[in-house]
Q: What sequence folds into this?
């Protein structure tokens, strides 16, 4: 057999993907009235400063809490804080 | 994303705001963290921002927290992609076509992207070639890539944290958190064109995470220190950063293949970069020349706690891609300065007519931190190192300290630096030299623009060259990994 017709087994350079268990999203809120919604802010003050003002002005019956960081990795809620938080808005990040 | 996933898992509904070109990355990451269908709202980088953007975003955000879940959003299961060991069977021309295939990535990229390579053709990883590569190490083909010694991982600025990692910890390649065996690294080493004798260096690169960083690693930059450079024929002389030397070129290239294949890097799909770097593009590696060190100066291996006869790599991910436009001088002008005290730099230093040694660093560091913070590495020929030693720098540490002190400036000026809002976390943290809160410091308090620590921020490496030229790039001392552990 000519060399260029020889059949080779060629190996895979791709690494191994650890399996991931997927889970359903948390049940959504029936309404926002009186709820505690946490704003987890990661940079982009151009967007967040007016949005925070608007949320607080337009929805005064929501208890707004907030943690701010100048980085894409957010400041997390503590275990204790999670117990009293109904929902979280996070951004701007990925 | 791991934070969002943990909240959703605990029953706290969330919604994410991301920018448009990050959507692919968001969709990808949600799978990695087990979320079948994430709720996210796209903000615009191009809008006017401010009130008008808030008007657009608020209602969809609140709707995402209250709209009942769809069936798809309620799904659970296992995501477990599986890759076969043998990827392709066929003739070499057929294999070349297969391994060099591209796919078009829609969206902002809208360009072909190589499926298994860095964009250049590769050596086909036949079973025979991979078996030959594996002869370059005593480690078993099915052994997982793990840490070979305990180490501290250092963060910086706002993401500052120190993690201790233990020998035996499995290495995850980013952005997909994949793991790999010695054989899978060998496949990539063959593809890059490496020889079996280079393989311990390649495995040390893999142990470092393979230049994948947090997923935006760019293939990484690596520095070799120790006798292995001579054994495998790395060029440490003229054109140390140039083409032509197989070891420098092919080992460096492995970084980008590991990023692509082990890490799963796919631009705008699995990660988002900015411009990339022309330096680490394709991977980048060079070795230091320690034989010409002035008396009292240590090689990188000894500086990092290893012995002179031990070989290591240092990851240059702290800024090696930032090849700054800094000082400029003709090599002859440097020689005139030191030999007779003539020429432009002699005039700059006001030592006209006085033979050296003179402190060339004064010239080299002039305005070095004008609008760029942090430290840098200098790669210099033996003569310049000897001149600095003769001038009075009897150790490398004394130079790191001197340069670092030169970088001090008042807080009032420091606050105008473009990276510091981020690095200081909006000036909410503690300034290190004073131990005080940033906001307590008066405007005239002096702080270093050139990094937090002299040793971490600066590095000096030698090359074996007579021409008196110096190269400079961002970052100082990074993390080191033993090459000998992988022999």
A:
């Amino acid at each position: 057999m000519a060399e260029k017709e020889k059949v080779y087994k060629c190996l895979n350079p791709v690494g191994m993907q650890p399996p991931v268990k997927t889970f359903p999203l948390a049940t959504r809120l029936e309404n926002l009235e009186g709820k505690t919604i946490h704003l987890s802010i990661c940079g982009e003050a151009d967007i967040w400063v007016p949005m925070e003002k608007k949320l607080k002005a337009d929805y005064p019956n929501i208890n707004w809490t907030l943690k701010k960081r100048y980085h894409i990795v957010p400041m997390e809620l503590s275990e204790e804080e999670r117990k009293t938080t109904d929902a979280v808005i996070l951004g701007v990040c990925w | 994303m791991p934070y969002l996933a943990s909240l959703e898992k605990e029953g706290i509904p969330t919604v994410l705001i991301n920018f448009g070109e990050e959507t692919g990355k968001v969709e990808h990451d949600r799978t990695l963290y087990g979320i079948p269908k994430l709720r996210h709202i796209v903000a615009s980088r191009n809008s006017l921002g401010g009130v008008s953007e808030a008007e657009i975003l608020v209602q969809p955000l609140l709707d995402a927290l209250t709209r009942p879940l769809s069936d798809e959003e309620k799904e659970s299961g296992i995501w477990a992609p599986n890759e076969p060991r043998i990827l392709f069977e066929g003739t070499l021309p057929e294999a070349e076509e297969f391994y060099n295939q591209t796919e078009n990535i829609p969206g902002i990229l809208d360009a072909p992207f190589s499926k298994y390579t860095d964009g250049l053709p590769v050596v086909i990883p036949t079973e025979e070639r991979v078996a030959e590569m594996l002869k370059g190490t005593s480690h078993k083909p099915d052994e997982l890539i793990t840490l070979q010694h305990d180490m501290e991982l250092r963060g910086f600025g706002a993401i500052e944290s120190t993690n201790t990692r233990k020998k035996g910890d499995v290495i995850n390649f980013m952005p997909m958190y994949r793991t790999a065996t010695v054989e899978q690294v060998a496949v990539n080493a063959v593809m890059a064109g490496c020889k079996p004798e280079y393989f311990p260096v390649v495995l040390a690169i893999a142990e470092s995470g393979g230049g994948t960083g947090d997923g935006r690693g760019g293939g990484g930059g690596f520095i070799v220190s120790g006798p292995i450079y001579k054994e495998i024929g790395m060029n440490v002389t003229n054109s140390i950063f140039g083409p032509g030397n197989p070891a420098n070129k092919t080992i460096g290239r492995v970084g980008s293949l590991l990023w692509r294949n082990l890490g799963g890097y796919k631009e705008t799909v699995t990660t988002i970069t900015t411009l990339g770097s022309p330096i680490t593009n394709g991977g980048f590696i060079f070795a230091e020349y320690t034989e010409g060190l002035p008396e009292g100066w240590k090689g990188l291996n000894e500086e990092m706690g290893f012995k002179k006869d031990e070989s290591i790599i240092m990851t240059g991910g702290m800024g090696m891609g930032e090849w700054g436009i800094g000082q400029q001088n003709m090599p002859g002008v440097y020689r005139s300065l030191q030999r007779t005290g003539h020429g432009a730099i002699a005039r700059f230093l006001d030592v006209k007519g006085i033979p050296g040694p003179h402190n060339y660093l004064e010239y080299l560091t002039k305005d070095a931190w004008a609008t760029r913070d942090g430290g840098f590495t200098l790669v210099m020929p033996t003569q310049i190192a000897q001149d600095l030693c003769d001038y009075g720098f009897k150790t490398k540490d004394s130079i790191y300290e001197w340069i670092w002190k030169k970088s001090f400036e008042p807080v009032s000026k420091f606050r105008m630096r473009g990276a510091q809002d981020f690095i200081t976390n909006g000036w909410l943290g503690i300034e290190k030299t004073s131990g005080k809160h940033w906001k307590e410091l008066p405007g005239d308090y002096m702080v270093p623009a050139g990094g937090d620590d002299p040793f971490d921020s600066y590095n000096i490496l030698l090359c074996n060259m007579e021409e008196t030229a110096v190269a400079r790039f961002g970052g100082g001392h990074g993390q080191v990994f033993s090459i000998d552990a992988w022999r």
About this structure: Chain A touches chain B through 62 residues (CB under 8 Å).
